[in-house]
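note to self — DONT lose this again. spent like an hour looking for the file last time. sequence + predicted structure for the chain T wanted, 219 res
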Amino acid sequence: MFTTSSGEMADCIRCGTCCRKGGPVLHHQDKDILRVGRIGYDRLVTLRRGERAYNPVKDVLEPIPEELIKLAGNGKDWGCFFYNEAAASCAIYGYRPVECRLLKCWDTSAVRSLLGRNTLRRADIINSGDPVLELIAEHERECPCCELERFIRDFGHPKKKTAALSGLKELVHNDMSLRVFAFRELELRREFELFIFGRPVSQILKERGLKVTMNKGDY
């Protein structure tokens, strides 16, 4: 039975709507899933502090106050990588994160009570002595998302547009330079890029309707 006597939904009908809306944010309760390798770091994407993300409670996109880690999308959109569209099933169902376990589309109270609480950061799941932590810290210093949002806002004001464009170019340059350095000099595996650095600044700008053109010598 999937509905109550009143006709209200009472169980999951595997429609896939929740999974298509995006992978869950990871919490400290999900550490064991990562430790046993059921979810690889290559399937994680970091949303950086100040980056715009969807707030399901307010039903709006807004800058997030703290860093979040999510399951990556399927390559076409934010739909969860582990959702099998053809079979309408989850590839890691027995090891799915806590948000997935709590989510009931007909009653979201349980998962809403978890939103923003005990969420994981990169530093929580990277060994404390790993030099990549300093690389992450440098990336945050050189191209913070809060600055990115400020420049995007200023770009819409005629008197601030020139300075905003210059600032955006600098952030794109810093972001690209650090990624190239990590790949070429530190030999960071590219499949870990979205976990280590989050989404490229240029990609975020493109999604916001802005395209910053860089010369080859700029990075």
